[in-house]
Amino acid sequence: MTLIRPYGDTTGDGMVQLSFTLPIEHSKVAEGAAVQLANKMGMDPALVVHAKPMGEGFTFFVVYGRVNHLVDPSTVEVVERDYPLLTPKEANAAIKRSLRRRLTVVGACIGTDAHTVGIDAILNIKGFAGEKGLEYYRELKVVNLGAQVSVPQLVEAAREERADAVLVSQVVTQRDAHLLNTREMSAAFREAYPAATRPLLVVGGPRFDETMAEELGVDRVFSRGTTPGEVASFIVHRLTQEKAS
Amino acid sequence: MAVGKASQLGIDKADVRRARTLARQVGKPIVDLAQRHTTVSVERATLRLAGLGGADPDGTPWVNRLADVVRADVGLEHGVTLPVWDALVRGEGDDLLALAQKAAAGSVTFRVPEGRDATRARAASRKAVAAGIKRIDRQRVARERMIAKVGDAPSKPWIYLIVATGDIHEDIPQAQAAAREGADVIAVIRSTGQSLLDFVPEGATREGFAGTYATQENFRLMRAALDETSRELGRYVRLTNYASGLCMPEIATLAGLERLDMMLNDSMYGILFRDINPIRTFVDQRFSRQIHARAGIIINTGEDNYLTTADAVEAAHTVTTSQLLNEYFAKEAGLEDWQLGLGHAFEIDPEVPDSFRLELAHAMLARELFPDAPLKWMPPTRHMTGDIFKGYLLDGFFNLVGAMTGQGILLVGMMTEAVVTPWISDRDLALQNVRYVMNAAGNLHEDFHPSPDGFIARRAREVLGEAVDLLQEIKDDTDAAGDPPLLAAIADGTFGLMKRPADKGKGLDGVARKAGDYYNPATEILEGS
């Protein structure tokens, strides 16, 4: 694997741009301080291209400069997709073949989070990024509980609907509410179900780290930009595979 | 539409009249329903007007403690006023607070007074509640005097900026800084989930989720700080908070008492987006709007929410429909045109061809339908992807529509929407964006007249037509229980995919049908009888 560095307009030039605010009145000293920060961040030379006073005692900077760092993509750790992407047709066929019934998905925003944008993008037939939502899949029964669902309500609904998978969306992240809520949710499901019959737990939201699934006690974490097709494919893959093995 | 003013969009005045007639026909049965019911929050708001504040050592407000005991003793259907003032007249407590404390300790039994006892209780309660309403009146006068003295916001649209730290003592310096940077209106975002609390938290609060609790003390502290900043800047800086939720009547009351200037108050938001019981919401919104009307508060309605959960092109007419209903309910409650900050938003997918022309058409339609209302223009959120550079451009186009359509209130869009809560630099850059556009194109509406048969005018007429059809569909809706058509329509999912039956939803147990001897001095005074 080749080592790479940032690209401005010439291979290997290492050029990056950076903007930030320093709590200092605008002056020559302030601009020097901005250069010093950029230098310490590894930008050398660093060029302050814009400096503007903002409010009392603050200055905003835009800095361009060259970094010497090399990055090695071969050492980067990410969660690679470990399931095949299915079209809705393929997903429906896989469910029919292996479950011989519709697969039930219960979705909700839990805790005080009122932002249904995420769960709606995945579940509503309208969908997201040009892909239809899970409601579009003939073999999926979707129960969208909406916003501000409590964990006990979610567990109750999952039981009632005999959910195969539970989808939880969390947008609000202040004070790590998304992490706390997710842990509470996964613990509740573990308590309420024997391990063998527990529904698949999937959590998603723009600020989640996809590597945290195990730590949060869920089967999968989806982050920013996830499409309905990816979620459907994952659920179908895991649940139909489980059945086959 | 203003009489005698020709439509720029070729809109037939008869269509506008028809839309308003339908809105009235849909709204009137709901008003009748609201008049037949009361809620725990309406009753608690009445106690607050009479001066009962504070909370017990566990933080439960005294209005809740007292109202709960009264309800347990005699039910909610008579209202709490007669039983409470009957007890006071009988000497069960020196004042409301003492009575609430005794009631909480279980040493008072309430009854529904009759005959002369009832007459005495009515007179005493009316005097106490009138004092609270007088305080609201005095705050309204204080606002008018202060604006006359220090000056008003220099131009329209008013620049609306948000603070949301969760800590009132952090909010205050941020709000003051935002005002110095150019904000005409400061909105303190509420803690997530407050709308579902069936009580109003008490005191200055320093912990909240994605916002700061709306409390009387927080209102007071922030208003005092902005008064100071208003004097310093030579222009009155307005303060906004949120009434919507389970405690609409109480929060509206506190806002009036503490001289807030605008309140988010939508007639159906709680039902559709928070799953609050429809009847509870309609009763609460009517009382809260009567209070806002009295307090001289401008309401902001929540139509932007329709576009964040549905496609902004397909759902454009639901915004118009909701604006017409909000207008009907607001006027019925006594609000005037200048108090109607009807909401709409710039949420069309920028990849849609002609998205800017569509946005302009929708905004011009709102402007023509409600010429005397200070419309509230909400920035893009759905299609802010984290690409801050693209987002900055999108916000510029949003500002341009605002400039071209004479918006009254402009919520400043942040390029870091969906990335972080705004940084100091985000706010400054966002304000530079607004200023550039207003300076460069603020008077463009003088020159800009869309072609009567062009895309924009046609689209505006199309959306109005769809809104009329939707109102007609709502009016013709029915359910097995024989509910008013709007309730039936809400129950069967006419608004988005959300089905909200009249007998479900949060806060239903706090609703009661009024008994024949129901009495509420606040309603009596507010309705001028």
From TrEMBL, chain A:
Q: Which InterPro entries match?
A: Cobalamin-bd, Cobalamin-bd_sf, KamE_N, KamE_N_sf
B12-binding domain location is 102-245
| Molecular functions per Gene Ontology | cobalamin binding; metal ion binding; protein dimerization activity
How is this protein named in the record?
A: Lysine 2,3-aminomutase
| Gene source species | Nocardioides ganghwensis
Could you read off the lineage of the organism from its UniProt record? Bacteria, Bacillati, Actinomycetota, Actinomycetes, Propionibacteriales
Automatic annotation (TrEMBL), chain B:
Pfam families tied to this protein: Lys-AminoMut_A
Q: InterPro entries annotated for this entry?
A: Cbl-dep_enz_cat, Lys-AminoMut_A, Lys-AminoMut_asu_sf
Superkingdom of source: Bacteria
Ranges for domain D-Lysine 5,6-aminomutase alpha subunit come to 9-524
MF annotations from Gene Ontology: catalytic activity; cobalamin binding
Q: What is this protein called?
A: Lysine 2,3-aminomutase
Per the UniProt record, the source organism is Nocardioides ganghwensis
The organism's lineage is: Bacteria, Bacillati, Actinomycetota, Actinomycetes, Propionibacteriales
